[in-house]
Amino acid sequence: MSKRVVLTIDDIPQMVTKNMVDYLVKNNIPAVMFAVGENIEKHFDTVVYAIKNGITVGNHSYSHPSFSAISYEEGIEEIEKTEVLINKAYEEAGLPRKVKAFRFPYIDKGGDKKELFQRYLRENGFMKIDDSEIEAKSYYLVGHDKDIDVACSFDIREYNVPSNDMTFDEVMLHLREGDGEDGADIMNRDGYNIVLFHSHDDTEKVVPKYYVTILDELLNAGVIFTESEWKN
Q: FRET label pair with 74: which of 29, 60, 127, 223, CA 20 to 30 Å apart?
């Protein structure tokens, strides 16, 4: 057995994203990065750079809304506007887009519209990371295994630092200790997890190179970052 992790990174592209890509390439860490359409329009070349460097880019909506707070039609528009931008980035990179993946902002799957969104994603060729080996009970309790969007089994929670909801020391403690008896533990127990991380300029301003500190910690603990396997 081993400690295996699929690394997923939300909210690209931002100013820090290119440096994160360089770190990932240097350390041979594969990753799936979920892009926000508005951010693609601001930093289009960064998305192209990520694709050229082996990053799989997925869809994270256009304006990052809570999908339970918008209509079904608005949600579809959020997805489709971003699809156009991602396809354009792959075309500019000169590489085929082999995977269509979507992650809901805040993992908010639409509330009473959830099944409508799930049907849309399935009917339009979206895929999910293979989650058949995840052991964290919490992942199954909320039904992530039954859905086609990409969720996660372990949330690093570093995005809480700029708002002072968590200190960086508390983030590192959470990283080292895991989510408790029924949750995921990516550093101390063998297993397989889909990990949620973020590319955030706000976090970089508070803790410069936060991504280096966190990912180095995982590498030093013997975590193996694996390529994502996809399924319909």
A: 127
Contact assessment for residue 103 and residue 149, using Cβ atoms and an 8 Å cutoff:
yes
- Strand-pairing partners, residue 196, are 8, 155
152: left (phi over 0), alpha (psi -120 to 50) or beta: beta
- The answer to whether residue 181 scores a pLDDT higher than 80 is no
What span, in angstroms and rounded, lies between the C-alpha atoms of 156 and 18?
20
The DSSP annotation for 134-174 comes to: ---HHHHHTTGGG-SS---SEE--GGGTTTTSS-HHHHHHH
The CA-CA-CA angle for residues 223, 179, 230, to 5°, reads: 55
Going by DSSP bridges, is the β-strand pair 128-129/230-231 parallel, antiparallel, or unpaired? antiparallel
Q: How many CB atoms lie within 10 A of CB 160?
A: 17
Q: What is the pLDDT of residue 182?
A: 74
Nearest to 41 by CA among 104, 85, 84: 85
DSSP count for the chain of H helices, then E strands: 9, 8
The yes-or-no verdict on residue 183 having pLDDT over 90 is no
Per-residue DSSP letter, 229 = P
Structure token pair of residue 186? 């990516």
Over residues 126-178, the pLDDT tens digits come to: 999 999 999 999 999 999 999 999 999 999 999 999 999 999 999 999 999 99
Indicate yes or no: pTM above 0.90: yes
DSSP summary character for residue 66: -
